[in-house]
């Protein structure tokens, strides 16, 4: 056997090994997800979604605006087979995101070999932070799945001419926005499709108008259902304006409401949210491995080996539009809002690095990535399903106290009420309201959380000497970066 034959044999063995590893990773993670289902509604949003399966009511924030109707519908369907409401939403996310392997693979096959496409699908699917968010009872997991199917439909529509293929993108965009309206910037993909088909002579102006009307009608399906649930257009508009105002001007921590500078927002979003959390899952090993892959990407970019193709153009343009949206309108305290940027970044990165290559070292790096992500993802999935979130720890502690106490908190109150904690819990944001309200509880122990204390400090109120720390609660910050650490204080009676 000459050196070339020996080298080919080794390369073939490496290919078989990474193919089997990719398949094992996918199936093992699915098994892990279904055997360790997260059934904790540990945040305000998660409680909203869980309560919606009992009674859908936007005014009661079951769920909050804009209603997420297709996500709730999916969770409701699973709830027919799974008793726990929270687990039903999580299972819907798991199964829907698993289905996204098909469009990920098919989109990859446009550019790379079958093996490379399988590797790309496995790396994106096993991405650790994505896995963590898919296993929470929030709409992100289902929205990411819908986003992949929508992107694939845009590719099909660009290549095909039949009516059936051309109505797929508007339909899937409707499903995407009916799951998560904050993914609205991805509608630019549909606009770009119309423009390209018109420019190529595949669409006339009349056809663009017809398909645009169809796209609007698709959105009106779920919007109309929400209006009907509210009872009137006026009531729905009033609710939507109130929520939008609150999101951009108050609690949403958007660029308008935040005290953080614009440059600081960009820095936090890109370096902490996208690179450190979203891609590396706050793991040094993953950061190093992805750093190597990025270096290879930059090397190929300098050599001008990038292929121009409609689908990649779509991913770039949609990603840039969402990046701008995330900087301006999303809450940078919650890295989950950048998940689309993570999957798009990985897709572009891996497509270019794995294109037309016989580099065994590159496949070994991908092998290490898959193994590492599978390990970290499975550990975090299990931890998230078993360990009590900090909000639940707080609830259990309060439940152990006698009824002669009242607790003032922020968003923790929603979780405490969902847990049916008997001690009264009140959401308070201003110091004057707190002083007035606590005056009604002379004979009760007054408890406040660190979020309330921090809120008062931001208002210029110094509570030094007025409170004493009595308990701390911790959970993994990657699950919830806002309420992973809760400190409970007691208000001194002399004040």
Automatic annotation (TrEMBL):
Query: Could you identify this protein by its name?
Result: Glycosyltransferase RgtA/B/C/D-like domain-containing protein
Transmembrane segment boundaries: 12-31, 86-105, 117-135, 141-158, 170-196, 208-228, 274-298, 310-329, 338-354, 360-376
- Signal peptide span: none
Q: For this UniProt record, give its keywords in alphabetical order, as a comma-separated list.
A: Membrane, Transmembrane, Transmembrane helix
Domain of life according to the entry: Bacteria
From which organism does this entry originate? Cytobacillus dafuensis (Bacillus dafuensis)
